[in-house]
């Protein structure tokens, strides 16, 4: 009789604990665990979610922290062999993810539903911050040492889908971006996921995600890759009636500019220079896109105009003349070449680097040549522009400049010819005025 009473009381306490964890009531959780520590072993009925799972699902990081301090297993499994890290990734609870990773949670566990990892869950549900945190942690975790980091980024689930496939299928362009930036293979084919043999580009076409298609193409995805039934992504986009996607995927339309990732100077770029070049790549591809999409524009709802499309400000009037790129005479010099210090705009340096489509074999590609001095370019950095004295904020970051000014238009064609031939040396941009024109 007394035994039954005790077990009843224990059962009641267990339910109280689960309820307190779910609602994030830290005081009650601590009091209950103080009274009987074994309560923390409790899990919910059918789903068998441990207290850690519940805290992670509901994003109660203080409760989670308290539980982890009681040395609970950070990789406990629920009914579907999902870890607390997986359910936190599913629900986008970034602070819980960070706490679990700190506690040494294993990033390379597979659930029993689809054989997915926490990275798959973050990509599928589009939680880019969680994805980033998991990748950061994986870089320094034992997984990288034993498995290899790039192999982890390209980990397959039970259907042969990588996290990149899932991000593409769900149209999560931010996650997709982070994944390709971390070495995810844009040409990987699935086994059973989606249509068998689908590439990320096939899946983005099926999802109708223009942003994902843009990203994938800019990272070298192949428009001619076929799935197991012999379909190219263009056919998939047509089948799902995604007109704009189909137009970009049509092998007959203009080739997009591809990020020159095999170049060493590109992998060595600092964050600011990289952001500038990426922006230039995006803008260049957007221009190509405009002409491709022009024909089907009438049938599509028009997107709201963005600042970048309107050519917001004419920054050139504020910058001195010699900050203008001497190759195109359209944009400001934003990139400086290491060693020779010659400057040009991000778009021009990019077209030098992207001259040839990067080859997928990863074999060495020779670095581009500086058009001013003909020395091979070994590194790039951001060029800062000094504007005239009347302005108090003397240094402006020109990464956001978009301009349509053609002040030097008359001069441009003749200079361009000379510069492309490499016979026209250009002086140091730190000198002022037109001095550079007189230098030998
Ligand atoms: Zn230029
Ligand atoms: Zn040079």
Automatic annotation (TrEMBL):
<keyword id="KW-0479">Metal-binding</keyword>
<dbReference type="GO" id="GO:0005634">
    <property type="term" value="C:nucleus"/>
</dbReference>
<dbReference type="InterPro" id="IPR050776">
    <property type="entry name" value="Ank_Repeat/CDKN_Inhibitor"/>
</dbReference>
<dbReference type="Pfam" id="PF24921">
    <property type="entry name" value="RING_XB3-XBAT31"/>
</dbReference>
<dbReference type="InterPro" id="IPR002110">
    <property type="entry name" value="Ankyrin_rpt"/>
</dbReference>
<protein>
    <recommendedName>
        <fullName>RING-type E3 ubiquitin transferase</fullName>
        <ecNumber>2.3.2.27</ecNumber>
    </recommendedName>
</protein>
<keyword id="KW-0863">Zinc-finger</keyword>
<dbReference type="InterPro" id="IPR056760">
    <property type="entry name" value="RING_XB3-like"/>
</dbReference>
<keyword id="KW-0677">Repeat</keyword>
<feature type="repeat" description="ANK">
    <location>
        <begin position="47"/>
        <end position="79"/>
    </location>
</feature>
<feature type="repeat" description="ANK">
    <location>
        <begin position="159"/>
        <end position="191"/>
    </location>
</feature>
<comment type="pathway">
    <text>Protein modification; protein ubiquitination.</text>
</comment>
<dbReference type="InterPro" id="IPR017907">
    <property type="entry name" value="Znf_RING_CS"/>
</dbReference>
<dbReference type="GO" id="GO:0061630">
    <property type="term" value="F:ubiquitin protein ligase activity"/>
</dbReference>
<feature type="repeat" description="ANK">
    <location>
        <begin position="196"/>
        <end position="228"/>
    </location>
</feature>
<dbReference type="Pfam" id="PF00023">
    <property type="entry name" value="Ank"/>
</dbReference>
<dbReference type="InterPro" id="IPR001841">
    <property type="entry name" value="Znf_RING"/>
</dbReference>
<keyword id="KW-0808">Transferase</keyword>
<keyword id="KW-0833">Ubl conjugation pathway</keyword>
<dbReference type="InterPro" id="IPR013083">
    <property type="entry name" value="Znf_RING/FYVE/PHD"/>
</dbReference>
<keyword id="KW-0862">Zinc</keyword>
<feature type="domain" description="RING-type">
    <location>
        <begin position="325"/>
        <end position="374"/>
    </location>
</feature>
<dbReference type="InterPro" id="IPR036770">
    <property type="entry name" value="Ankyrin_rpt-contain_sf"/>
</dbReference>
<dbReference type="Pfam" id="PF12796">
    <property type="entry name" value="Ank_2"/>
</dbReference>
<dbReference type="GO" id="GO:0008270">
    <property type="term" value="F:zinc ion binding"/>
</dbReference>
<feature type="repeat" description="ANK">
    <location>
        <begin position="80"/>
        <end position="112"/>
    </location>
</feature>
<keyword id="KW-0040">ANK repeat</keyword>
């Amino acid at each position: 009789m007394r035994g039954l009473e005790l077990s009843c009381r224990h059962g009641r306490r267990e339910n109280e604990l689960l309820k307190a964890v779910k609602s994030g009531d830290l005081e009650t959780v601590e009091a209950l665990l103080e009274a009987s520590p074994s309560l923390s072993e409790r899990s919910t009925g059918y789903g068998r979610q441990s207290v850690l799972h519940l805290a992670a699902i509901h994003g109660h990081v203080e409760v989670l922290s308290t539980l982890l301090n009681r040395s609970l297993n950070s990789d406990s499994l629920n009914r579907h062999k999902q870890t607390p890290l997986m359910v936190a990734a599913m629900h986008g609870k970034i602070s819980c993810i960070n706490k679990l990773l700190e506690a040494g949670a294993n990033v390379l566990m597979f659930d029993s539903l689809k054989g997915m990892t926490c990275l798959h869950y973050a990509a599928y549900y589009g939680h880019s911050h969680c994805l980033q945190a998991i990748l950061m942690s994986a870089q320094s975790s034992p997984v990288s040492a034993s498995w290899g980091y790039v192999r982890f980024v390209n980990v397959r689930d039970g259907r042969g889908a990588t996290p990149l496939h899932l991000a593409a299928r769900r149209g999560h362009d931010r996650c997709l971006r982070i994944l390709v930036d971390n070495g995810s293979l844009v040409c990987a084919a699935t086994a059973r996921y989606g249509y068998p043999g689908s590439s990320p580009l096939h899946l983005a076409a099926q999802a109708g995600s223009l942003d994902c298609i843009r990203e994938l193409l800019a990272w070298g995805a192949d428009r001619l890759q076929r799935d197991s039934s012999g379909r190219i992504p263009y056919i998939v986009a047509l089948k799902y009636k995604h007109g704009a996607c189909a137009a970009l995927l049509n092998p007959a339309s203009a080739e997009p500019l591809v990020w020159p990732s095999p170049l060493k100077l590109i992998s060595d770029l600092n964050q600011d220079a990289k952001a500038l070049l990426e922006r230039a790549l995006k803008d260049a591809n957007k221009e190509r896109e405009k002409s491709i999409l022009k024909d089907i524009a009438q049938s599509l709802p028009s997107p709201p105009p963005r600042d970048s499309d309107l050519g917001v400000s004419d920054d050139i009037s504020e910058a001195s003349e010699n900050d203008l790129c001497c190759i195109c005479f359209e944009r400001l010099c934003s990139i400086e070449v290491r060693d020779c210090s010659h400057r040009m705009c991000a778009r021009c340096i990019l077209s030098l680097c992207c001259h040839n489509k990067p080859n997928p074999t990863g074999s060495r590609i020779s670095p581009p040549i500086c058009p001013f001095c003909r020395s091979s370019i070994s590194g790039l950095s951001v060029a800062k522009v000094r504007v005239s004295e009347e302005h108090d904020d003397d240094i402006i970051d020109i990464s956001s400049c978009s301009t349509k000014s053609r002040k030097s238009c008359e001069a441009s064609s003749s200079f361009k010819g000379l510069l492309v031939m490499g016979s026209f040396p250009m002086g140091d941009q730190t000198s002022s005025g037109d001095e550079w024109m007189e230098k030998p």
